[in-house]
Amino acid sequence: MSEATPQPRQGLTDLEIARNAGILPIEEIAGKAGIPADALELYGRFKAKIDPARLRLPGGAQGKAQGKVVLVSAMSPTPAGEGKSTTTVGLADSLARAGHKVMIALREPSLGPILGMKGCATGGGYSQVLPMDEINLHFTGDFHAITSANNALMALVDNHIFHGNELNIDPRRMTFKRVLDMNDRALREVVIGLGGPSQGVPRQDGFDITVASEIMAVFCLATDIIDLRERLGRITFGYSYDREPITVADLGVQGVLAMLLKDAIKPNLVQSIAGTPALVHGGPFANIAHGCNSLIATRTAQQLSDIVVTEAGFGADLGAEKYMDIKSRVADVAPSAVVVVATIRALKMQGGVPKERLAEPNIEALASGVDNLRRHVRNVEKFGIAPVVSINRFASDAPEELDWLLQWCSQEGVDAAVADVWGRGGGGDGGDELAAKVAKAVSASSSFRHLYPLDLSVEDKIRTIAQEIYGADGVEFSVPAQRRLADIEKNGWGRLPVCMAKTQYSFTDDATRLGAPKGFIIHVRELIPKTGAGFIVVLTGAVMTMPGLPKEPAAMRMDVDNEGRPVGLF
């Protein structure tokens, strides 16, 4: 691959840039990463799965120091875009360019937002992972396997009820739903089993999107296939008529669910435009789930590299907090450095500028919107880590705006750099300054800590996150949520961490309140124990676990050309 700085061609889409990029056979990328050939399971020429059990590292996995983790997070997302995945890929490429042995660890994209409005999840411009179109569509089938395992469980549950219900399952107290990897609001609430006695037992049900499934969370937090099977067995899918929790192990089907996931659990190996090895595996959303790629992928990348650049979904109030308080409790993957991505455009939108006027220089709006970034930065510091701010550059950014934001970061005592990894990534110099600051942060001493201890009550854990991270005055629990709190304590789940389900657009549970609001209450409407994943999901405000499509879905612009290649895929 050439070391020359790529020159972006005006008007090219991300898909066109990806298609024009040179892509190496995946065996070459594996060799570069130190992965032996017999640990590879090829999915065509440019994708492969890795069997971690077949990795043979010098001195064994225990003999090698674990690579340090760089976590990429961001300010609160806006329609203006922040470019977290683009920054993740560009930063990794720039660290590799500086001589570090680096691997990328990303989540897999969900078809729901791809066909909806959010876009792809493979980066952008010259900082992408390839093959972009295949990763964003069906990839290696992991999401289909997770969907199948989830729905197999519910088919077996309803079959058990139909054939006598020996476990005394109360159909009215089911806490597990069927899933689909699609935004489909019509499936949020359904009635199943209609049509007479031979068609099943009628009950009210519903669908979640696959990324919200507890099977997805278990998949992403399991340490190996044995742990996966055990976690699947611990899943609570409902309650008996005596109000006792019933688990997958009670039904005795954890083995078949693990069988359906035996291939999917192996991490997927791909590459960036610059040839940096990337593991793309697992994909829970960060607004309704824990928002991190699989633990197996992160730990595999740690074994194979000196620095792992990974990301957590949405802003630091969601994905990053969950990375610190959920994922980092399961294994030694706590970050040595955290990057908070910001853009001039997004900050101006946080300051009240409408999207159609974001190209106009506006220091006043920038100064107003920067409160949002400040809160995210200070929140990261509460975990004992000094963040680095990455200013993801857009062509419309005025020099005086960039200078103002750099000066503001300096006054706040925060390291910051302007990164042009969209236009000058792919092995170019667009992220060199950011990479230097991140490398310095990685080598500096830090004192990572969780936000709360596990022996705190679930109610107090929720209050701690709401007050310390969101800036809320307090928390209001609905009557059903108060009842569930009592059930959680009764069933011995009080030591589990909490996974907040909240709008990604605001620190509050109201998506319209931008900036860094004060004087608000977080409204908790329900709590769902995820005993296999090992956390309590806390539903706040009007957040949905099955999103809907916008009025004009991105799918309306997608097609295939005469050769069957995707077009319109961003």
Q: Which properties best describe this structure?
A:
Domain 2, N(10)-formyltetrahydrofolate synthetase, Rossmann fold, twelve-stranded mixed β-sheet, 19% strand, 570 residues, Formyltetrahydrofolate synthetase, domain 3, four-stranded mixed β-sheet
Task: Provide a descriptive summary of the structure in words.
Strands 1, 2, 3, 4, 5, 6, 14, 15, 16, 17, 18 and 19 form a 12-stranded mixed β-sheet that branches. A 4-stranded mixed β-sheet has the order 20-22-23-21. It is globular, with a radius of gyration of 23 Å. It has 3 domains: 52-129 and 277-443, P-loop containing nucleotide triphosphate hydrolases (Rossmann fold, 3-Layer(aba) Sandwich), CATH 3.40.50.300; 145-162 and 169-237, Domain 2, N(10)-formyltetrahydrofolate synthetase; 458-540, Formyltetrahydrofolate synthetase, domain 3 (Roll). The chain is built from 19 helices and 25 strands. It is 34% helix and 19% strand.
Main beta-sheet annotation: 12 strands, mixed
What is the count of structural domains? 3
Per DSSP E runs of 2 or more residues, the count of β-strands stands at: 25
The helix content, as a percent range, equals: 25-40%
The fraction of residues assigned to DSSP E strands is 15-25%
Whole-number mean pLDDT: 94
Number of helices: 19
Distance between the termini: 25 Å
Which SSEs are present, and which pair or pack?
Elements: H1 14-20, H2 26-33, E1 40-42, E2 48-50, E3 68-74, H3 84-97, E4 102-106, H4 111-115, E5 123-124, E6 127-130, H5 132-136, H6 142-162, E7 169-174, E8 178-180, E9 190-192, E10 203-205, E11 207-209, H7 214-221, H8 225-234, E12 236-240, E13 245-247, H9 248-251, H10 254-261, E14 268-272, E15 277-280, H11 295-304, E16 307-311, H12 316-330, E17 337-342, H13 344-350, H14 363-381, E18 388-392, H15 399-411, E19 415-419, H16 421-424, H17 432-443, H18 458-470, E20 474-477, H19 479-490, E21 498-501, E22 521-530, E23 535-540, E24 559-560, E25 566-567
Helix pairs in contact: 3-17, 6-7, 6-10, 8-10, 12-14, 13-14, 14-15
